[in-house]
Amino acid sequence: MEMIKMEQRKPIVIMNWSMRQNLISEAEEYAVDVLNHQSENHKVEVVLLPSMGTIHQVSKVLTGSQFAFGAQNMAEIDQGELSGEFSIQSLVDMHGKFVELGHWERRKLYNETDETINKKVKLALAYDISPIVCIGEIEEKDANNVIDEIKNPNYVQELKEELFLRIFNALYQIDRDKLKKIVIAYTPAWAVGKTKAASAPHISRAVAIIRNSLTELFGKDADNIRVVYGGTVSPENTKTMLDLADLDGVLLGRFGSDPERLQQTIEVVEQIRC
């Protein structure tokens, strides 16, 4: 297979608002506020992932703007007998561009397997939708989100094995010419929704493992894949993360619920990566 031509990876900021702003009026108001806070021509790709019931309304607000949007999950098939699931056909019809897959809540609470996530990744790519593939440790660490390697000298090796396996399984049999559409989100469960993010040195180490794993699997073509960090992200810690780790951006949760804070994060990423 021919080597894919390298392109400069565009920095990206993703806002997953989970099950917040669930009322149509709230979702529309938030999307309007986000647009009002945006800079004229930012060089960062910004993606909003609304709560599932508000995607259509948010999509209408964002029409013609610089912001992309997507879904927080989708079914592993495009249509059929899967009551209560969300079809990728609906997302495409609304002109969505992204879908988040493999979030730790989906893995732990809904027992989603690597095999299921791989099916979803392939389906998303078949519909020209960019999958945001979440990987990371599920197990809780200590209260300060600090890895004590003295207590667990095997931690680094265990981390390497876990992240490599997640990447291998999620991207199994993915065509190399599709790699540039993929975003890998390092989202360790023990740092999501907490009072502080994982430490910048730990993020740097984990991202290096992810980059090395991608290179081992795809060679130079892996340079096309964007990698972001998610887990208690704020404008303040984004700078430290990007200074130390080979990240293309960040994935925000609740701290992005304030449009001004979201814009501040976008500006930090733009200043450092553009």
Explain this structure to me?
- The chain is α/β, with parallel strands linked by helices and 274 residues long.
- It has one domain (12-273): Alpha-Beta Barrel (TIM Barrel), CATH 3.20.20.
- The protein has nine helices and eight strands.
- The protein has an eight-stranded parallel beta barrel with strand order 1-2-3-4-5-6-7-8, surrounded by six helices.
- Strand 6, helix 7 (200-218) and strand 7 form a beta-alpha-beta unit.
- Helix 1 (24-37) packs parallel to helix 2 (55-62), helix 1 (24-37) packs across helix 9 (259-273) and helix 8 runs parallel beside helix 9 (259-273).
- The two termini are 32 Å apart.
- Residues 1-6 have low confidence and may be disordered.
Please state the overall shape, judged from the principal axes of the Cα atoms: globular
CATH topology: TIM Barrel
Characterize the biggest β-sheet: 8 strands, parallel, barrel
Could you report the average pLDDT, rounded to the nearest whole number?
91
Query: How many strand elements?
Result: 8
Instruction: Label the CATH architecture.
Output: Alpha-Beta Barrel
What proportion strand?
A: 5-15%
Q: Termini distance? A: 32 Å
Pathway: Carbohydrate biosynthesis; gluconeogenesis; Carbohydrate degradation; glycolysis; D-glyceraldehyde 3-phosphate from glycerone phosphate: step 1/1
Main location: cytoplasm
Subunit structure: Homodimer.
GO molecular function: triose-phosphate isomerase activity
